[in-house]
Write a structure and sequence with these properties.
The protein is an alpha+beta fold and about 400 residues long. The chain is built from ten helices and 19 strands. The strands form three sheets. Strands 1, 2, 9, 10, 11, 12, 18 and 19 form an eight-stranded mixed β-sheet that branches. The longest helix has 18 residues, at about 350-370. The structure holds flavin-adenine dinucleotide.
Length: about 400
């Protein structure tokens, strides 16, 4: 059993990717000499979206801040071994650089992708616009009569072992003396407009200097403990893994179709998912697999672009949830105006693994220096919610 101190400088509410990234970066920051407690009820992480993700990273966003966050994620992945090793050991995250491919079905969509690529290139992302002839040469398995072109990313985009990625950071945080306790925050104490401590399901009370809401799809419940409203709701996202009868011996980028269906290779299989036709709020405990999505939407779509996908069989499938920010589908980061020492890190939708390192570093800077230093993440603050001013990003999958 973990023996708790009476108080910690920082308490992370939730210990999956986001809570762990914050704890990791705080504990790695030489200017931070405080203590960190991570409260997490489920040490199997079975129902954390961190373990239900599709484990990919891209640079192709339309907002420069998202590009910067992912570029830092890519850099972190490139140096993962040095950054997380404990006694010379670190887990293998097996990054496969394949790029992402965004398909344009008509000229207007092609021009839009091309316009977006100007900003992406200016931000240092590797992207190129390809026409069907070039696509047929590089990816001969595609039916290029189905579209007018695509934007394709470079090899810093790709996929990795998300569990190893998360565990590597967690092991290093533990090594750095971060405390993890198996418990759940059920109440938050406020005094004079500041969080003073958290109350746990076990009955313990722990004082704190800062609290970080890293509760994923339960972030709204946690914010409600101090009477703050957070426009985050769980949205169902089912993942399917399938087998293709005829092998495809070429690189398969993570391909995003105009219908919101995406697929990529996962070792000998293919992984896919979609934005459901009816995308509505669900209960945070609902991890049901939406089988109809595969039959009605995903299979016809992937077979349209890759004729070999006409002959496929499902290998496995699992339910997951996006912590969906209903204002603008993007991350909410940092304090609200009312409670200065309660920090949000919520609303990632499908980007929380790749943004984890950038967000963890940002939170560590906010807490240690009172301001962001590496990337100014202020535009992602909770105050935009209060002002009802959306953060614009159109490349949300
Ligand atoms: C189908 C799918 C595909 C995805 N694909 C990608 C991808 O390719 N690339 C990418 O970057 N991201 C992807 N994501 C997104 C990514 O998985 C999430 O953004 C990220 O894992 C969020 O991490 P988190 O720690 O914020 O939340 P979670 O992983 O959901 O963890 C929240 C934690 O908070 C804990 N908690 C809840 N309430 C409390 C409480 N009261 N007290 C204490 N603890 C509490 C929970 O037990 C849980 O462990 C995908 C997500 C899904 C669903």
């Amino acid at each position: 059993m973990t023996v708790l101190a009476s108080s910690y400088d920082v308490v992370c509410i939730g210990g999956a990717m986001t809570g762990t990234a914050a704890a990791y970066f705080l504990s790695e920051n030489p200017d931070f000499d405080g203590s960190v407690l991570v409260v997490e009820p489920d040490w199997t992480y079975d129902y954390a979206n961190t373990t239900r993700a599709q484990n990919s990273i891209r640079e192709q966003y339309t907002n420069p801040l998202n590009i910067q966050l992912s570029r830092f994620g890519a850099e972190f992945i490139a140096h993962f071994h040095e950054r997380v090793q404990v006694n010379g050991q670190s887990p293998e995250i097996n990054f496969r650089g394949t790029g992402y491919m965004f398909i344009a079905e008509d000229e207007a969509a092609y021009r839009r992708l091309e316009e977006e690529s100007v900003e992406q290139l200016a931000m240092g992302a590797e992207v190129e616009m390809l026409r069907p002839g070039q696509i047929a040469e590089r990816y001969p398995y595609m039916d290029v009569d189905q579209f007018v072109g695509a934007r394709v990313g470079g090899l810093r985009e790709g996929s990795f072992d998300g569990w190893a990625f998360f565990q590597g950071m967690r092991q290093r945080a533990l090594h750095n003396h971060v405390t993890y306790v198996k418990d759940r925050v059920i109440e938050i104490d406020l005094d004079g407009g500041r969080v003073t401590g958290v109350r746990l399901e076990s009955g313990a009370r722990v004082g704190c200097g800062f609290a970080i809401n890293a509760a994923g799809c339960r972030a709204r419940e946690v914010a409600a403990m101090i009477d703050l409203d957070l426009p985050i709701e769980p949205r169902a996202r089912t993942s399917f893994m399938f087998d293709c009868r005829t092998p495809i011996d070429y690189v398969v980028p993570l391909t995003v179709t105009p219908a919101g269906v995406h697929f990529r290779r996962e070792q000998n299989h293919f992984m896919c998912g979609a934005v459901p036709t009816s995308d509505v709020a669900i209960d945070a405990s609902d991890f049901e697999i939406r089988h109809d999505e595969f039959e009605e939407l995903i299979w016809p779509t992937v077979a349209k672009y890759v004729p070999q996908f006409d002959q496929i069989g499902i290998v496995t499938s699992w339910g997951g949830q996006y912590d969906y920010n209903t204002l603008d589908h993007n991350l909410i980061l940092g304090p609200g105006s009312e409670v200065e020492n309660f920090f949000f890190a919520n609303g990632f939708s499908g980007h929380g693994l790749q943004q984890g390192p950038g967000v963890g570093r940002g939170l560590s800077e906010l807490i240690t220096y009172g301001a962001f230093r590496s990337i100014d993440l202020t535009p992602l603050s909770y105050t935009r919610i209060e002002r009802n001013e959306p953060f614009l990003e159109s490349a949300v999958i």
